[in-house]
Amino acid sequence: MLTAACVGDCNADGAVTVDELLLGVNIALGSAAATACAALDTNDDGEVTINELLAAVNAALNGCPVNHVPDVPCFGIYH
Predict the structure, then answer these.
(1) Would the N or C end of the chain have less CB density within 10 A of its end CB?
(2) CA 34, CA 25: separation in Å to the nearest integer?
(3) pLDDT tens across 17-67, in order?
(4) Are strands 2-4 and 77-78 parallel, antiparallel or unpaired?
(5) What does the alpha-carbon distance between residue 48 and residue 42 come to, in Å, rounded to a whole number?
(6) Exposed e or buried b per residue across 45-54, where buried means at least 16 C-beta atoms within 10 angstroms of its C-beta
(7) Who's near 69: CB < 8 A, 6+ residues apart?
(8) Which candidate, 44, 41, 61, places its Cα nearest to that of 52?
(9) Concatenated DSSP letters for 20-74?
(10) H-helix or E-strand containing 4?
């Protein structure tokens, strides 16, 4: 199983897109609520700051990190 955790990945699809970056700018400018993209508000303070925007731009340019999650047994059955 793979999971992606990425600053700016508003729809949790494993990538940061231009529209997600623009949403981040709008949140930073006060034109949109921070709740519109929790993945941009990394410190959960209800705001999107320049460092959070830059982290999202970096993720857009370089890709999101992918974490491998090992399969765990569930009542003796692996899934």
Answers:
(1) C
(2) 10
(3) 999 999 999 999 999 999 999 999 999 999 999 999 999 999 999 998 876
(4) unpaired
(5) 8
(6) eeebbeebbe
(7) 1, 2, 3
(8) 41
(9) HHHHHHHHHHTSS-GGG-TTT-TT-SS---HHHHHHHHHHHHH---EEE----EE
(10) strand 2-4
